[in-house]
Amino acid sequence: MTALARTDTSLLGRWWWTVDRWTLAAIGLLIAIGALLVLAASPAVAARIDLDSYHFVKRQFVFLGLGAMIILGVSFLSPVGVRRLAILGGIAALALTMLTLVAGTEIKGASRWLHLGGLSLQPSEFVKPTFAVAVAWLLSRNQLDEHFPGFLATTGLYVVVVGVLLLQPDVGMAFVVSAVWGTQMFVAGLSVLLVAGIATGFIGAAVGAYFIFDHVRGRIDRFLDPGAEEGYQVGRALDAFGNGGLTGRGPGEGRVKEILPDAHADFILAVAGEEFGLIACLVIVALFLFVVLRGINRAVQMDDLFRLFAATGLVVQFGLQAAVNMASTVNLIPPKGMTLPFISYGGSSTLALAIGIGMLLALTRQGPAVGGMR
Predict the structure, then answer these.
(1) Using an 8 Å Cβ cutoff, are 278 and 6 in contact?
(2) Residue with the larger pLDDT of the pair 363 and 168
(3) Which letter does DSSP use for residue 340 in this model?
(4) How far apart are CA 213 and CA 87, in angstroms?
(5) How many helices (H) and strands (E) are present in the chain, helices listed first?
């Protein structure tokens, strides 16, 4: 594709010279690292639960391949196409999330999964990117038409989405959605007083969650008392980082993954730390930071409000999910079952993140070829 001339007016040519190739490259590296770490971490987990050693590897390679195709496909969309995908996909995702309340499979006290044929689907994962784009559309309409109740509409949508998530319950997902919504409202020009009120409400909700949800209280108590039995995974993850040191023990030489239940999923960074060391972990952190900062930089250059608000929401969601996973792995915050984007095992998460990154790439395309696609 580097042979494409800037004057090439084909669909591929216009995409290549307008898409953010640096972000695309960083995401490609994260996908490659994810494939390597799943290959390193998951065979021990599969063997421990009497599955084929490469059960998770084969499935995740399929998810990563599909995710890569989704990223590329969605990145070709115009802003109008992104908006339509978000609205239609968001309605479907929210409906399926509601369905989990009555027909979902309960795992660890929460009903978040639907079994469709031989596949398991967590529809709430797809709510996150579509919600961010839908909110951006409503807020941009509000800015362009003073009679359109954009702030009221987004607040109503937020209440419905968070209400459904809390009924599952999925407090962590509700927190991410809340942070994205609050950030977009702030960028849209909400007064400082109202922003302070929203922040106070978030704090109150967090305190309330501690007393209402047993699993939230257990995780926080475990965080405050790492020596307790419930802190087993965090303790083993910290052991892994200690074993790995600066350069790691070497590929395949990790031992903590043999006893860490979620070594291939929520705690996969610990496997990276033990086998490849602190340097490899810092490279992963740097890649996530690059995508976030690059996304913010491209977002503020957008020449229309919808693209600005949507890109901001998508990049905040991506960065916050990565930060929550990494912080909980190293015991900086209470543990939360949230995947590390494109690195942890998980089909629903990988595909939903691919949609979000594809939307981000589509919305941050720059150049004359983009101008006619609004």
Answers:
(1) no
(2) 363
(3) P
(4) 31
(5) 13, 3
Q: What is the CA radius of gyration of the chain?
A: 21
- Strand, helix or coil at 111? strand
Residue 318 tokens, joined: 């991506």
Report whether the peptide linkage leading into residue 169 is cis, meaning its omega lies within 30 degrees of zero.
yes
pTM of the model: 0.90
Chain mean position to CA 263: 18
Q: What are phi and psi of 110, to 5 degrees?
A: -130, 140
* DSSP class per residue in 14-36: HHHTTS-HHHHHHHHHHHHHHHH
Closest CA to 279 of 243, 239, 237, 248: 248
Extents of the domains making up the chain: 11-373
Under 8 Å between Cβ of 147 and 199: no
> Tokens 């409000």 map to which residue?
305
The answer to whether residues 364 and 307 touch, using CB atoms and an 8 Å cutoff, is yes
Q: Are 131 and 180 in contact (CB under 8 A)?
A: yes
32: left (phi over 0), alpha (psi -120 to 50) or beta: alpha
The neighbour count for residue 227, using CB atoms within 10 Å, is 7
Burial 117-126 (b: 16+ CB within 10 A, else e): eeeebbbbbb
- The closest alpha carbon to 349, from 38, 123, 92, belongs to 123
Residue 339 is classified by DSSP as: P
Tokens for 233, please give them. Answer: 């995974």
DSSP 8-state class, residue 119:
E
Instruction: Write phi, then psi, for 112 (nearest 5 degrees).
Output: -120, -5
Query: Which residues are registered as beta bridge partners of 57?
Result: none
The answer to whether 76 and 110 are in contact (CB under 8 A) is no
Q: In which band, very low, low, confident or very high, does the pLDDT at 273 lie, cut at 50, 70 and 90?
A: very high
Write the pLDDT tens digit of every residue in 61-116.
999 999 999 999 999 999 999 999 999 999 999 999 999 888 877 666 567 788 87
Task: Judge whether 151 and 158 are in contact, CB under 8 Å.
Answer: no
List the structure tokens of 288.
């996530």
